[in-house]
Amino acid sequence: MPTMADVARSAGVSVATVSHVLNDTRPVLPHTRQAVLEAVEELGYTPNTLARSLVTSRTRSIGLAVSAISNPYFTEILQGVEAAALEHGYSLLIADPHDDPVHERKVVQLLHERRVDGMIVAPSADPRGLVAYLARHDVPAVFLDRVIDSPGDRAPRFDQVCADSAEPTAQLVTHLAGLGHRRIALVAGRPGLSTTGERITGYRHGLAAAGFPYDERLVVHGDSESAGGEQATAALLSLAAPPTALVTANNVMTIGALRALRERGLSVPDDIALCCFDDFAWADLFTPRLTAIAQPSKEIGAQAVRVLLERLAAPDRPARTVRLACTFVHRASCGCVDEPEQKHSAQRSHPPERSQLPRP
Q1: pLDDT tens for residues 248-278?
Q2: From CA 187, how far away is CA 218, in angstroms rounded?
Q3: Average confidence score pLDDT of the chain
């Protein structure tokens, strides 16, 4: 088995230079670095990661704690995290906190005990135990998808990466209002999650922009799950004056909502218009195709890795929150004429001409 000394002889450099290239412990001239990497490839040298971690106090591993990995949205985030981690020479240790604060605290401790260099975590609705543990042990961490507000005017304690939620949700509401709908309902996510709160805020802003009052009866929590989305939609349809349009706040609740509509024999958009937050691979396979807000899920994951690596390189820099823009994907479930798919930034848009509008 080739050794580091073999690599050094092949590249014509010292063993120390090979070590600096492999461990990123000191800048090396580009042509020297390339010679070392070519020697590593030619000889098939495999670094001793255990020995390297003892020398550098780094394992070149990242802990990822994300619930509902089976959800296509989080699956794409995972793909983005993995690709960026591998690009920078890091491996992943993955755990599912199940959106349970107690279990969340346990899995984060387990990842920490495995000496990961840092963590990327999608916090639960009650992240107090998580935050306390990370702060107490000074663990480099990035919060993913869901943000945690700091009390008062205090700066955030941890870096955060997420998509914009409020303005895109407002856009869905104003789009439906522009189509003539007056009773627009929201199937909201799990209470306590920042994404849930922001999308409710966006919903209210959209109503206000359209000149409509807020009616709390038209907001029902589906707990970010398919079954919850189905139950929430059923509750909305049971109102004395049911909604004529529906906004679902994540992809799996959209599936539940469609199931509830089908069970009642209701057609989209003829009987009720539907817009959803979260696009997914098969959204354009439904009939009609689903008008949706698409989050840059893979880029969210990749950006979280980049922010974490910046934190590892500069532990004392101020924490920051990175918000990525979403995309409005205009299809036909909202009641517009089905045209070739159009995607544009999630900003307020003008409704179609009135001649194209269906009756709500």
Answers
A1: 999 999 999 999 999 999 999 999 999 999 9
A2: 8
A3: 89
Q: Which amino acid is at 96?
A: D
- Residue for token digits 């036909």? 332
* pLDDT band with cut points at 50, 70 and 90 for residue 67: confident
What is the DSSP code string of 93-141?
A: EEE--TT-HHHHHHHHHHHHHTT-SEEEE---S--HHHHHHHHHTT--E
Residues in a beta bridge with 121: 65, 143
Residues 352, 314: contact at Cβ < 8 Å? no
CA distance 226 to 249: 11
Burial of 238 (0-12, 13-18, 19+ CB in 10 A): exposed
DSSP 90: -
Residue 1 scores a pLDDT above 90: no
Crossing angle, helix 194-210 and helix 166-178, to 10 degrees? 30
Cβ atoms of residues 206 and 169 within 8 Å: yes
Contact assessment for residue 73 and residue 295, using Cβ atoms and an 8 Å cutoff:
yes
- Single out the residue of 145, 141, 146 nearest to residue 159, CA to CA: 141
pLDDT of residue 348: 43
CA nearest neighbour of 325 among 351, 310, 344, 308: 344
Give kind and range of the element (H or E) at residue 91.
Answer: strand 91-95
pLDDT, tens digit, 9 for 90 and up, residues 315-339: 999 999 999 999 999 999 999 987 6
Instruction: Look at strands 342-345 and 327-330 and give their pairing.
Output: antiparallel
| Closest C-alpha to 92, from 70, 121, 50 | 121
Residue type, 290: L
User: Which of 6-20, 200-214, 216-230, 253-267 is least confident?
Assistant: 6-20
CA distances from 86 to 20, 53, 79, 82, 153 (A): 19, 17, 11, 6, 37
Say if CB 189 and CB 247 are below 8 A apart: no
User: What does DSSP say about strands 184-188 and 159-163: parallel, antiparallel, or unpaired?
Assistant: unpaired
Distance in angstroms (rounded) separating the CA atoms of residues 11 and 90: 24
Cβ neighbours, 10 Å, residue 157: 14
Are 123 and 143 in contact by the 8 Å Cβ rule? The answer is: yes
